[in-house]
Amino acid sequence: MPVPHDLEKLDQRVGFFHPEPTFIKRGVDLVPFLDDGTSPPAGIPNVFDTPEHWISNWGLALAEVEITLKKLQNCVEPLLGKRGTKHLADLHARSKTMPYAKHLLRDIAHAKALASHGPRMLETLTAWRDLAQSKPSGDLIDLDALKALFAERAALAELLKNHIANILKQGAHEELWRQVQHSVDTDTVDPEWEFYREFVDQKATGWRGHRLFGIEPPFGNNCEDLRGQDCLISIREDSLLGTMSEHFYGVSIWCPRDDMANGKLEGGQVVLHCAV
Prior knowledge:
Shape: globular
Number of domains: 2
Distance between the termini: 35 Å
Number of helices: 8
Largest sheet: 4 strands, antiparallel
């Protein structure tokens, strides 16, 4: 059915990031699974949990390490020299006045680990960046060297507590994905960016959190009356679909349970999953 010519545009006053009257339509493969509605199902593997599953060539290796280097530098440099000494002293002083604030002890351990091991890791990442720069971007990665690098990164990650730990352990795939989307047309990758192709495909076709006839966890900031209804479809915020917004993290349609049991799906209640 064609889109009505007089369909109004999305109201950007409620936070949607684009004014088009419809969201992007993309082909999907429906995959049945069982889970509790709160996380990706075990039967759908996440290739981005393991770096060697997605860093497949030297171009990706270079792009990833440049992001990681910058983020680690921003974490390590403030902890070195007089500035770092003062920061640690302040943390110790606060921990003595607030002995029950366990997070301060974690902050101290995190800062000490970065100050002690961060400079060496920066040297390792710089050497890896230089190696990646010397290789043709489309050439296959040296898997043994990649695994050795991430084993060293994971060892440091175990001593840390915030986002940099995940980046060191799994690679900066989320940051790289945002960078790629701003730089590359994900539908028609330019030959200059061809080394991104497999990465783009993996990101676009992996688990994206959308559900058909699925269980939904409670919406903490919503107050709609959903008694007697089941979720027909739930669409998470997704840059590939254009469903990103400032104040919502998804949208779902709910239908009376008896109607769904009888295959009557003509109408339903639309729920915007409120983030604030």
